[in-house]
Amino acid sequence: MGNRSSRTTWSPDGWQRLEARHQPDYPDQTAYQAVLEQLATLPPIVFPGEIVQLRGRIAEAAAGRQFILHGGDCVERFIDCTPQTITNKLKILLQMSVILSHAARRPVLRIGRIAGQYFKPRSAAFETIAGRTVPTYRGDTINGYAADQREPDPERLLKGYFHATATLNYIRSMIDGGFADLHQPYSWNLHSIEQTHRWGEYRAIVDHILDAIHFMESFGGLRNENLGRIDFYTSHEGLHLGYERALTRPEGERWYDTSAHLLWIGERTRDRAQAHVEFFRGVSNPIGVKLSATAEPRDIVALARELDPDGEAGRLMLITRLGEEQVRGRLPDLIEAVASAGLDVAWMCDPMHGNTTTLAGGRKTRDFDSVLGELDATFEVHRAAGTHLAGVHFELTGDDVTECTGGALELAERDLEARYESYCDPRLNYAQSLEMAFLISRFLREQRPG
Fold first, then answer.
1. What is the pLDDT of residues 166-206, one digit of tens each?
2. What is the dihedral of CA 90, 96, 101, 107, to 10 degrees?
3. Quick one: residue 170, left, alpha or beta (phi over 0 = left, psi -120 to 50 = alpha)?
4. Angle CA 333–337–339, to nearest 5
C-alpha cells in the first residue's frame, strides 16, 4: 500500500497502540490469543493475485468502463452455510448482474458480502430480552443470537474461518463447474404470504421479470458460454482487528489481508486517529469506506490521503449512505472536495443504511421507494458533477423474506412478521432485488456514453 516511506513506517501490529472500537471483550484472554495464533497458521481464504485483479477491475469501474454490483447479507449466519442458501445468494447476484450489464453495455463486477460477513458493529453494548439484560449480538463469530449465548467466545472465530472457507469453496466449485439454470429462480416457497393482499399482482410481476430474463437468454445474454468466465469476489466489514491481523500475510514488499478480497471500514470506525484506519492503511487490498450524512468533506479528503497516499487506481472506494433526503444537499460537496484534491476513488452508493426505520415494536425495516429514491438522486448528482457512479451496494438475499416494505408486493408493516429472518438489518428479498436491478437499468442507460 501507499508510498515507500509509509510502507516502511507501518507494521501489521501498529494498530494495537491505538483505540480500537467495537472489539469484543473476551473473558479469557489466554484462550483468545491461542485462537489468534492458530488462525495465523491456517491457509489464506483468498490469494494476493486475486486481490490484485480486483483492484484492476475497480479502477476500470471508477473510470466508467465497468459497473460494480456489491451485495449480500447484512450479517451472515452459520446456519445458512448450506448448498441451497449459498446457491440462492450467488444466483440473485448473477441474475442482477446480467440485467445491469445489458443496460450499461459494459461488464459488471460482482462482489458478494459473503464468506466472511460474520461481524457486525452495534450501537449499544447491551440489550434487554424478556426482562434480562444481555450483551448485544455482534455476529456469529463473536457470540450467539440466543440470549444465553451472548458471552463472546473466541472459538467462534475459528468457526467463522471454516464457514467462510466452506462457503467460498462451494462458490468456486459452482462457477468452475458451470453454473446451470441461471435463468431459473429458486424453488418458490412463499406459503406464508400467499394470502396477502397483493399476492396475485406480485406473482405476475415476478413472472414478468423472469420472462424478460428468458428473452435476454434467447439472444445469448445469459448463457454461461457467452458470459465467459464468471469472476466473483468476496468482501466483509473489516471490524474484528485480531481476526484480520491473523489472516494478513506478507507477499513481497506488500501485506495482504487474505480473509477477503475487499474490506470496508464502517461509519463507526473511520476515525483517522483510531486503530481501524491505522491497520487498513497498510494492507494492499482495495478498501471501502462508508460515509453517512455526517461526513465532512475536509475529513474525507484527509482520510482518503491517509488510506491511499499515492492515489493508486482501484485502491479506494467511497460508499455513500446518506439517506434519500440528504443526497442532494450533502453529496455535491463531497464530490467537489474529492475532485479538487485530485483523488482517484471509485464512488459507490449504499442506499440501504440511510433509509432504515425502526417500528414501534423495535423491528427495523427499509422502504423500497426510499432506497430507489436515494439511488435516483445519487445518479443525478454524479451526472451533474461529471463524475461516474462506479456501482451500488445492497443488503439483499436470494430468499423470499419479508423484511423491507414496498416493491412489487407492496409489503406493508403488517406483512413483515410473515418471514422476517435477519438477525440485524432488513434485506431486499429475491423479487425486490430483481425489480431493483431493472429499475437501476434505467439510470445506467442514461449514464452510458452515446
1. 999 999 988 877 654 544 544 444 444 444 444 455 455 55
2. -30
3. alpha
4. 115
Res. 437 pLDDT band, cuts 50 70 90: very high
Cα–chain-centroid distance for residue 70? 5
Beta carbons of 75 and 415 less than 8 angstroms apart: no
Q: Which three cell numbers stand for residue 182?
A: 441461471
Q: How far is CA 342 from each of CA 270, 278, 351, rounded to the nearest angstrom?
A: 21, 22, 26
Could you write out the DSSP letters of every residue in 173-236?
HHHHT----TTSPPPP--GGGTTSTTHHHHHHHHHHHHHHHHHHHHTTSS-HHHH-S---EEEE
Nearest to 266 by CA among 140, 159, 381, 393: 393
The domain containing residue 427 runs over which residues? 4-447
pTM for this model (two decimals): 0.90
Number of domains in the chain: 1
Give the cell for residue 314: 482501484
Contact 314, 286 (CB under 8 A): yes
Residues 6+ apart with CB under 8 A from 191: none
Three cell numbers, residue 262: 475487499
Query: Helices 199-218 and 430-447: crossing angle, nearest 10°?
Result: 50
Which of 342, 435, 347, 434 shows the shortest CA–CA distance to 383? 347
Q: Which CATH number do you get for residue 363?
A: 3.20.20.70
Report which residue type is found at 74.
C
